[in-house]
Amino acid sequence: MAYAYEDILRHQAERLTAERNQAxxxxxxxxxxxDVNLLNNASDTILRVDxxxxxxxxxxxxxxxxxQQQQRQQQRNPHGFNANEIEVALSLPDRxxxxxxxxxxxxxxxxxxxxxYWEARRTGxxxxxxxxxxx
Length: 135
Fold this sequence. Notes:
By secondary structure, the protein is mostly helical. The chain is built from 4 helices and no strands.
């Protein structure tokens, strides 16, 4: 199973937190033992981890914004149609002997037809090579 983006972001945040805690411990040890090299390395690590954590927070905020946008779009478009499919669905002509279809009815009809098409392809009742002449 593929990793979820939330899990990746959470794992990275945990890894950065652990790395920062380790660097803080090294910084304190370097301060106590007056080890300049270890002090510099630990402080550099803390700065790098803080930059990485800030960037990770930006990624997480962008991801959350995208998820929320998709959820809003799904609420407006419960069938999950793209813009072209919506245009085709709404262009369905009304039958002269039937009452006019609302926008929602046209989208539902398009979804039913699309599901019938995919079911026919899945069962083999409809094939893409129908009508193809091979010589």
